[in-house]
Please model this.
Amino acid sequence: MQSCVKVLIDGSSSDLSFSYLIPDGMEVAPGSRVLVPLRGREAVGTVMAVEEVDTSVLSYNMKPVRKVVGSQPFLTPDLLKLAEWISGYYMCSIESVYRTMLPKPARGKEDKSKKAKQVRLPAGVLKDSAAGERIPKTAKKQVEAFEVLREAGEGGFLLSEMTGVKGFGRSTISGLEDKGLVEVVDVVVSRDPTGGQTFVASQPLTPNPEQQVVLDKIKKVSGKNLEKAPKPILLYGVTGSGKTEVYLQSIQHVLEQGMGAIVLVPEIALTPQTANRFKQRFADIQDQVAILHSSLSEGERHDEWKKILNRKARIVIGARSAIFSPIENLGLIVVDEEHENSYKQDTNPRYQARDLAVVRGVLEKCPVVLGSATPSLESWKNVESGKYDLAEMLLRVDDRKLPLIRIIDMKLETRKQGGGLTILSSKLREAIEARLADGEQTILFLNRRGFSRSMLCPQCGYVANCRHCASTMTLHQHDDKLVCHICGFSQLPPRKCPECGAKDIVNSGFGTERVESVLKEFFKGARVARIDTDTMRKKNALRDTLDAFRAKKIDIIIGTQMIAKGLHFPNVTLVGMLNADVGLHIPDIRAGERTFQLLTQVAGRAGRGELEGEVVVQTFTPHHPAIQFGRHHDFIGFAEQELALRKMFGHPPYVHMTLITARSKHQERAEFSLKTLHLRLARDLPEEIVMTEPLPSPLVKSHDQWRFQVVMKAVNPRKIATHIRTVMKDMTFPEDVIVTFDMDCYQMS
Ligand code: ADP
Ligand code: ZN
Model:
């Protein structure tokens, strides 16, 4: 019997592995990255498993592994298991998951750690107090260098430091080396994304009674080697209730037990401010905190990851992909703002990091805390069904009241202002004027979700909804149809408003630029800045604008929801939301939920300082539940009503929804491929699965690609995945057609 490894070659689209022998003395384990011969070339791959084989019965000559990359496996056994789970659930290849789990520089043939030469005294010399006497007194430089290194202890100095700032010649070091008094070795150095910044340690705050209850609950299960995973805890805590402080103290506890922790935050919220809060609390063990976000250079990202792999870092703060951090001995996973859509990856593999946190928690028997002021309905339903534990913090730490939210009915405004496109209501105009007079600041939000046209009557607020789904229908102008993208129902668009008879009922909307010019017209001399993807293209543009705003050099900021999160401006006393409806009228079952979340977040931006805040929300549908419950800061009321609706229509979270899309440059080929696939899927369709007819996507053409789609729903997601896999086994598509499967899709585009 001989040991061999099963290797999944990089880039392979099937999950088929190849076997290679392990040469004597080579250390490999599952998760190791290896170089192997493959059809006359050399390939890189990941070891999936190590097995025993009887080579004498093999009909072929099994080749040996050539080399192991790096000094240890890059993926932990638990991550290998997680990869398999992801591949099964999200219908993607295992290799694509491995690829996502590893930072790019770690995927090559070489270990990409930045190496440097280090000079130090060998252990024996360090212990021998008489060792220095072996240097002749005349070699003054050598005596000096030796003393410097002895002082430095076992860490020594980098060679570059000795020959640089310390001013020793290379020959001096070599002289000592020849005498066996120093050694020069290769070490891995890391590129520190915080640039060697030092942090002043922040002290834990004394928890208030609400925080104490939650902390006790988390500490009871975290930082322990448990028999089985405890229930995930949903921490429902209003904005400013001190959730972050709870996370910090829970992590502290986990570290004291010798275990590690992962904290996920939405990319957009992962500002230096957030990162520094963690760095500060753990300032005395700063090296043990790794920060992973998308603006790191590849090298920095790799080094942070390497720090985790080498068990130097025990805490990881990061966006979505940080869920793949190779932390062993996990004592806690925290997902902050768990409702955020950015946890879902919209390219292959289309995983949802919050859900993976829960899966990883089960695999590693580790508690998971999901925190939010507006929990996702998925999580809320799991609390109701007893799958998750609920922890609540309903009071703000500073006892400040939540701001007053005023709802403006834009139908009335439009009539009042004589029809046409109305951007600012008179109420909002007055409110801005008052702020300008008092030297206080204003933030205006423009909701820019929704690429497609919905039918919305500006006179009466009528919206064309699907009679089967209560979801907004999309206008497809090229074939003049109103289509529901949830169920496929379609109808002719009305020529005039069915409610009030008005003629122009297509909602074309307006952008930030338009708002900016209107503001400049109304408020002469006001300093206005615009934050959107156009103006923020330049590096540091966002930071510079926000700095200027903080320094009160700007009176009004107008922006998209990219500025709705995590910003603190004590002088902002007015927040306006110009078009709360836009997010409501998109073909998306979560439209109401998202609008509610946005309202809550936006309201959280007002009155963060000593001054009280006011929020003005303009809408054509003032009675929509998302707006009414949002106005009263009533999450629980909203969740109850919305969940009842979802249940009635058979929408998530009561079912799992999968979006199947075929796209191609050629319209007919995309459409034909999808129709063929649909036919095959319809044959032997398990009873539990509900499937739509093939439809053009809401965004039927994008980036020169035509797109067609089918939606599947089932209570058990495995049924969908299994059926699709079975059908796909013997399907082939033209080369230019790309077919994607999006399990638990968030966007219907
Ligand atoms: P959340 O994450 O729920 O929005 P934070 O954790 O950011 O809330 O807390 C809001 C503010 O209250 C922060 O400035 C924080 O330092 C402060 N804070 C949190 N907990 C306490 C406490 N127990 N005592 C005093 N201040 C606290
Ligand atoms: Zn419908």
In short: Residues 452-509 form one domain. The pocket of zinc ion (ligand 2) is lined by residues 466, 468-469, 471, 484, 486-487, 489 (CB under 6 Å). The chain has a mean pLDDT of 87. DSSP finds 21 helices and 29 strands in the chain.
